[in-house]
Amino acid sequence: MTAPPPSQVLLSWSGGKDAAWALHVLRQRGDVDVVGLLTTIVEGADRVSMQDIRVEVVHAQAASAGLPLIEMRVPRQPDNAVYGARLAEALQVARSRWPSLRTLAFGDLFLDDIRHWRMQQCARLGWEAAFPLFGRDTAALAREMQAGGLRAALCCVDTTQLDASFAGSDFDADLLAALPVQVDACGERGEFHTCVLDGPMFAAPLMLARGPTVLREGRFACTDFLART
Q1: Which of 53, 97, 141, 150 would be 15's cystine partner, CB 3.0–4.6 Å?
Q2: What pairing do the DSSP bridges indicate for beta strands 32-42 and 128-130?
Q3: CB neighbours of 110 closer than 8 A, spacing ≥ 6?
C-alpha cells in the first residue's frame, strides 16, 4: 500500500531557537512537509514582535532554511481584533500559494493558555494548530538543542525577570549554568528571547554582527544583530 503524501505545514517563525528547533523536529518526521514560514513584523519598526530581530535577519534565516517567508505586519500592540484580521490575511496568502495547507505549527513549550489561544485563533479561521515541542522538559530540550548544533544568542531580556547583563549572551551551556533557578532554561515565560545563528535547520550559518544593547519600553534589554556586508 502506498503511503499518503505528507501533510503540508506552515510554521510560525520568530527567528528564535524554539521556532528553529520546531522546524528541525518537523523535518525529521515523514508525515509532514514544512512548506513555508510565517513571521509577525511590527509596522514602522521592521522588527519581529517580541524578539526585536531585524526583518532582514529573519529573511536571511528563511533563505538558509530554504523556505519562503510570509510577513504578517501588525501595530506595536495590536488588540485581538486587529491581530485576528492580520492573521486571516496572512493565512489567506499562504493558502493561495498552497491550496491544501490547513495547519499552522508553533514552537510553544508549556504555556497552556497561549496554546489554547492559538488553537482558538486557528480554528476560527478553519485551520489546525500544531505544537511539535509542547510538553518537553525545557532544561533537557535546551541541552538537546545545543548538542544538536543549534547556535543562538539572547536578543531580548525582560529585565523584570532576568538581569540586563544577560542580553547578547550566547545560548550555551555556560548560560544555562548561570541562569537563576527561577528562570526557565528556554525562557518560555518570556524571561528572554533568542536569535538563531546556525543549526541543522540551516544550509549555512548566518554571518551576523552583534550591535548595541538598548532598553526598550523601560523594560526590555534588546541586543541588535546585523547582517554583515
Answers
A1: 53
A2: unpaired
A3: 134, 135, 136, 138, 188
Percent above pLDDT 90 for the chain: 93
Q: What is the DSSP string of 208-221?
A: EEEEEEEEETTTEE
Which residues have C-beta within 8 Å of that of residue 121, sequence separation ≥ 6?
A: 83, 84, 87, 129
Distance separating alpha carbons of residues 163 and 19, to the nearest angstrom: 24
Which grid cell sits at 204? 549555512
Q: pLDDT per residue over 4-36, tens digit each?
A: 788 999 999 999 999 999 999 999 998 999 999
Residue 229 has pLDDT above 90, yes or no: no
44 vs 47, 74, 183, CA distance in Å? 8, 9, 32
Residue 5: how many other CB atoms lie within 10 Å: 9
d(CA 215, CA 46): 17
Mean pLDDT throughout 195-206? 98
